[in-house]
Amino acid sequence: MSKVKILVVEDELIIADDICDTLNDLGYETLEPAINYTEALIRIEEEKPDIAILDIQLSGKKTGIDIAKKIRESYNFPFIFLTSNADKFTLNQAKEVMPPAYLVKPFSKDELYTSIEIALFNFSKKVGEVDDNNLIIKDSLFVKEKGYYTKINFDEILYLKSAHVYIEIILKSQKKMVIRTSLNDILEKLNDSFVRIHRGYIINTKYLSQITQSSVKINKEEIPIGKKYKEDILKRVNLI
């Protein structure tokens, strides 16, 4: 598990540092700020942020809107536009890349937090959400804990267990997360590594170490196989 990782692209370093300090106070992880298009792409390639905050007006020929277009074309993660110019022309330019959220300087800590929440939520609605508090973006599950999102990569998950109206997510670290949803709903959003083997279990086949007539082992932990799911898991094993 990890904190939501945020890239700030702002050519005024004092403002960039102030935004990063505020983000850290809010419980997010911040990367070293980028001041232009080229630096932003380097940070994105090297650090793989979960979300970016892009000042529209940057030094150099390319703007934050150009960065947003590149993100849409090549990287596909959410971003927020940041600007001190809320004129009609700027807004129309920004709308062309459909930002999940938009911040106008000066803004408050609460406005920054709300914009990030909206951006993550709106983006997840396009790629497959679980519910308002638990989002799926790319190959990660964002679980809300104490008001903030925690990121869980699919590769960190060993298996999921039904617990009435909740699901227990068992991680490689042996930590357990609990979210409110159903196995049916979350299975539709997970990738092809996950398969349901029982009415109460979904496993990550990457960690499947043994299969018997009645159970499987996931990292040495034995999990039962339901009769109606057995054929599906055997087909998956042949493909692994």
Percent in helix = 25-40%
How far apart the termini lie comes to: 26 Å
Structural class: alpha+beta
CATH superfamily of the largest domain: Response regulator
Which of globular, elongated, flat, extended, rod-shaped describes the shape? elongated
Report the mean per-residue pLDDT as an integer: 87
State the order of secondary-structure elements, H for helix, E for strand.
EEHEHEHEHEHEEEEEEHEEEEEH
CATH topology of the largest domain: Rossmann fold
What does this protein structure show overall?
This protein is of the alpha+beta class and 240 residues long. The chain folds into 2 domains: 2-127, Response regulator (Rossmann fold); 134-239, OB fold (Dihydrolipoamide Acetyltransferase, E2P). It has 7 helices and 17 strands. A 5-stranded parallel sheet has the order 3-2-4-5-6, sandwiched between helices. Helix 4 links the parallel strand 5 (79-83) and strand 6 (101-104). Helix 2 runs parallel beside helix 3.
